[in-house]
Design goal:
single chain, alpha/beta, 4-stranded mixed sheet, binds coenzyme A
Length: 333
């Protein structure tokens, strides 16, 4: 079995910034409430005619450039998303085609905001066994397309973006040291898009009832998130005989600063080791963790040999974490 690591990262967010004050004009909310309850100050939204594949393409291109990998050398493209261009074909196929990744297998993976962690765990197995040499994993979302602009408890939370990572075999002892993934489908009703699938196909009624948008029991998801982030981070470290004291950098899913702070406090990890960018982007679902990873790499916050924990939770319910021993001091942009 080969050790597997991240050899390049990239990210992309749409240009247009929507501040909390901008949201005050379309829904009954205010900057003070959003900032104090979530930590979010602004987010980026894609124009109406820009699909998630465009965001994923841009992030993927940057990650390949960063890794100095030619598109034709990519063996596998996985896109984690809950806002694909279409129910089918897979967005990963469209993005692989645009990138010129002619020799790649490609598929989408749906694990909500945990999607990027599920994606790197999946891609790693192909490389660890020697079946593939290079994988491109992208977490991308256009959450703006599925928000109910009359529901102030959800529409203020999310943003659009994409983050990508190129995975290859690395020296033993580097790269991914452990993964921990989980799910609990009994919590599915807490966070879902009720219509558009085979359970409730699209109809005039489903559109009128706003059933193609995010429906969430915010308080329940909040409690679950705080508990599971701490539990799964401890478990993934324990698997390889490490503890929270060994963590150099924590990259949590960027849903709400109160969730991050509560989980970090429970874990006893110093806040200066925690990457937070949700103030600028809101919750970008599957894109949150890889965008934060890319920014941290580009800002020089990740040093060679650092022990990085990435941890997420999301619809499903799903959760996941990984321990990554960073192999480079930083990438050239
Ligand atoms: N602006 C102003 N007031 C708002 C508001 C908004 N955008 N959204 C809700 N409120 C109001 C509510 O109507 C409620 O008013 P009431 O007391 O008069 O009934 C009050 O604020 C408190 O609502 P509550 O839902 O208890 O707020 P909260 O502190 O729990 O925060 C969330 C709500 C959604 C921010 C929080 O529950 C959360 O972050 N949950 C997790 C969400 C998440 O991470 N989802 C993605 C998972 S991947």
């Amino acid at each position: 079995m080969f050790s597997v690591g991240i050899v390049g990262t990239g990210s992309y967010v749409p240009e247009e910034v929507t501040t909390n004050v901008d949201l005050e004009k379309i829904v009954d909310t205010n900057d003070e409430w959003i900032t104090s309850r979530t930590g979010i100050r602004e987010r980026h939204f894609a124009p109406k005619d820009v699909p998630v594949s465009e965001l994923c393409y841009q992030a993927g291109l940057r990650a390949l450039e960063d890794a100095k990998v030619a598109p034709e050398d990519v063996d596998l493209v996985i896109i984690a998303t809950i806002t694909p261009d279409y129910a089918f074909p897979a967005t990963a196929c469209l993005v692989a085609d645009r990138l010129g990744a002619k020799n790649a297998a490609a598929f989408d993976l749906e694990a909500g905001c945990t999607g990027f962690i599920y994606g790197v765990a999946t891609a790693s197995q192909f490389i660890a066994t020697g079946m593939y040499k290079t994988a491109l994993v992208i977490g991308g979302e256009t959450m703006s397309k599925i928000l109910n602009w009359e529901d102030r408890s959800t529409c203020i939370l999310f943003g659009d973006g994409a983050g990508a990572a190129v995975l290859q075999a690395v020296d033993e002892g580097s790269g991914f040291l452990s993964f921990e993934l989980g799910s609990d489908g009994s919590g599915g009703p807490l966070l879902k898009q009720p219509a558009g699938g085979s359970m409730c196909p699209a109809s005039r009624e489903t559109v009128e009832k706003q059933q193609h948008t995010v429906h969430m029991a915010g308080n329940e998801v909040y409690k679950f998130a705080v508990r599971i982030m701490g539990e799964v981070a401890v478990k993934v470290l324990e698997k390889i005989g490490l503890t929270q004291a060994d963590v150099d950098i924590l990259i949590p899913h960027q849903a709400n600063i109160r969730i991050v702070d509560a989980a970090v406090k429970r874990l006893g990890i110093s806040p200066d080791k925690v990457i937070v960018n949700l103030d600028k982007y809101g919750n970008m679902s599957a894109a949150s963790i890889p965008v934060a990873l890319d920014e941290a790499a580009k800002e020089g916050r990740l040093a060679a040999g650092n022990t990085i924990v990435m941890v997420g939770f999301g619809t499903g319910l799903t959760w996941g974490a990984c321990v990554l021993r960073w192999t480079k001091a930083g990438f050239t942009a």
